[in-house]
Design a protein that fits this description.
This protein has about 350 residues and is α/β, with parallel strands linked by helices. The chain folds into 2 domains: about 15-140 and about 305-335, Quinone Oxidoreductase, Chain A, domain 1; about 145-280, NAD(P)-binding Rossmann-like Domain (Rossmann fold, 3-Layer(aba) Sandwich), CATH 3.40.50. The protein is built from 10 helices and 15 strands. The protein has helices at about 55-65, 70-75, 135-140, 140-155, 170-185, 195-200, 235-240, 265-275, 290-300, 315-325; strands at about 15-20, 30-35, 45-55, 85-95, 105-110, 120, 125-130, 165, 185-190, 205-210, 225-230, 240-250, 280, 310-315, 330-335. The strands form 3 sheets. Strands 3, 4, 5, 6, 7, 14 and 15 form a 7-stranded mixed β-sheet that branches. Helix 7 (about 235-240) links the parallel strand 11 (about 225-230) and strand 12 (about 240-250). Helix 4 crosses helix 5 (about 170-185). The chain starts with 15 loop residues before the first strand and ends with a strand.
Length: about 350
């Protein structure tokens, strides 16, 4: 558990806030809950009072500073910022003078640096939250939802009626991929463990394969898209289940190397696809306002249902990160801030 730091300045309640911070790379034990300077709304942005935030694999890697190549973004010797977190849902506290599409009091969802805190300042990465969706459900959507959306829509070029297999269908990205593929009119096969078979069925999968009982790469089924979140199979395995014009989209790759990270796996898969004259794609999602709006529409229409596995208080964010680091999170981990 993150220990609550004492704060003797009783006059700073309007200019400071509670936030989870770290001064160096390391394990979740490096995290502290402290009072820091409260951000302000930029001229073209909004200040949001955070009600809930969610944990992503990116947060785990940022905490550790891994892989080393990523420190060009994170900071070479120490983090560029002590703040952590990205996904959030909350209420607009203030708006910049150039902002015309939000008002104080609007309930919003988005992605912005420092979401593991009471307030976050954000520019483009924010949209209105559907009224019937709770803050904790909305906070679970941004990065995982955009990753699934961009992978299927932009990289797989998924079309209605195509067959999709989601390998790793029980995690945050995978559970969204199952639902988004269904919303796009695809026939969806989900691969997950025994404990998550029923959940995958409830999310809309047309078929669910329990990988502890069946090897999906040894079946006679062929797919137009293999959406790989688990990153657990070699190219020769993936090739067996792809249609001749099918595509492998890598949306999750194992961090096998602390220096190069997933690059080795990606290169092997891309070379394998090239030699076999097949298609393989990998990408890093970029959260945009338009894509957040598209996900908000799916939430509004009832076609997207976030799966929240566990909820944590802000002071227990270290526990949430530790659970994420174990690699067995089923659905999303949400930090309740307010």
């Amino acid at each position: 558990m993150v220990t609550m730091a004492t704060h003797s300045d009783t006059s700073g309640t309007e200019t400071t806030m509670w936030a989870v911070v770290r001064e160096c790379y390391g394990t979740p034990e490096a995290l502290r809950l402290r009072r820091v300077e409260k951000p302000v709304a930029s001229d073209d942005g909004v200040l949001v009072r955070v009600h809930a935030a969610s944990v992503n694999r990116y947060d785990w890697y940022a905490l550790q500073g891994r892989p080393f190549l990523a420190r060009a973004e994170f900071g070479l010797l120490k983090p560029k910022t002590p703040l952590m977190g990205g996904d959030f849902a909350g209420v607009v506290e203030a708006v910049g003078r150039a902002v015309t599409d939000f008002n104080v009091g609007d309930e919003v969802v988005g992605c912005g640096a420092g979401a593991f805190g009471e307030y976050v300042s954000v520019r483009a990465g924010v949209v209105r939250k559907p009224a019937h969706v709770s803050f904790e459900e909305a906070a679970a959507v941004p990065v995982a939802g955009v990753t699934a959306l961009q992978g299927l829509r932009d990289h797989a070029k998924l079309r209605m009626g195509q067959r999709v297999l989601v390998n790793g269908a029980s995690g945050g990205v995978g559970s969204f991929a199952v639902q988004i593929a269904k919303a796009m009119g695809a026939h969806v096969t989900a691969v997950c463990s025994t404990a998550n078979v029923e959940r995958a069925q409830l999310l809309g999968a047309d078929r669910v394969i329990d990988y502890t009982q069946e090897d999906f790469t040894r079946s006679n089924e062929r797919y137009d898209v293999l959406f790989d979140v688990a990153g657990s199979r070699a190219w020769r395995d993936c090739r067996r289940v792809l249609e001749p014009r099918g595509i492998l989209v890598m949306a999750g790759v194992p961090m096998a190397n602390s220096v190069l990270g997933p690059i080795g796996h990606i290169v092997r898969m891309r070379i394998g696809a090239l030699l076999a004259r097949r298609r393989a794609a990998n990408f890093m999602c970029r959260v945009t306002k338009d894509d957040l709006a598209a996900l908000a529409d799916l939430l509004e229409e009832g076609k997207l249902h976030p799966v929240v596995e566990r909820r944590y208080d802000l002071g227990d964010t270290a526990e949430a990160l530790a659970h994420m680091g174990e690699g067995h999170a089923q659905g999303k981990l949400v930090v309740m801030v307010r």
